[in-house]
Amino acid sequence: MKGIILAAGRGSRMGGLTSDRPKCMTELGGKTLVEWQLDGLRGGGVEDIAIVRGYLGETFELPVKYFTNPRWAETNMVMSLAEARPWLQQNTCLVSYSDIIYGADSVKRLIEAEGDIVITYDPNWRTLWELRFDDPLADAETFRIDGSGRLLEIGKRTNDIEEIEGQYMGLLRFSPGGWQAVENCLVQLTPEQADRLDMTSLLQQLLQQEVKIQTVAIEESWYEVDSESDLRLYQEKFF
User: Fold this and answer.
1) Which of 106, 162, 166, 226 is the most buried (most CB within 10 A)?
2) Beta strands 100-101 and 223-224, pairing class
3) pTM here?
4) Domain count of the chain?
5) First to last CA, the chain
6) Which of 40, 63, 65, 36 minimizes the C-alpha distance to 50?
7) CATH code, domain with 42
């Protein structure tokens, strides 16, 4: 099992904190975000880890493998992930956003789950979102699953809290077969469409093509760092 951390973007919503460093190099609780991710992955049993870098990629000095997205400023997350094709085509890989904090238990649950494409989600998301936002629905999107945990819908705007059965975390897993389904999807898009594709939009595309996406619920706390206000909130209440 290999791990891939997607850290190519700048994170412009972090303001001046990313003027001289990638977003994942900002600190919380005495560690950088990427150090939290490395600890979570290694604690869950993933030792072979790569980082996909882009913005200020030369500042990374961690003892891991690197892939590079030279077009990071023109592309979105899926094209950054595609730079790790040599791993994804041959190995089952856990993929992590670089602006989230999670623990080893979430990683273990993801490893143990069955399926070619599996995503983690938080069924108790409202507690954290109500702290982060005056209106949790302003940021949240639909997330619906069936009785077996198969993903039915993700990533649409909604005014109905009942359509949100969980919050997708940004921690997921692809087998080589699952990655092939992604490649099959990408070849149907124009280069411009592929460049704009974020991960949630990719999952939507896969669902439209009836690709099975399994979900696994987490039980431990996790954190998404999207802004300076998130950092202040978490530092005050949790770290």
Assistant:
1) 106
2) antiparallel
3) 0.96
4) 1
5) 30
6) 65
7) 3.90.550.10
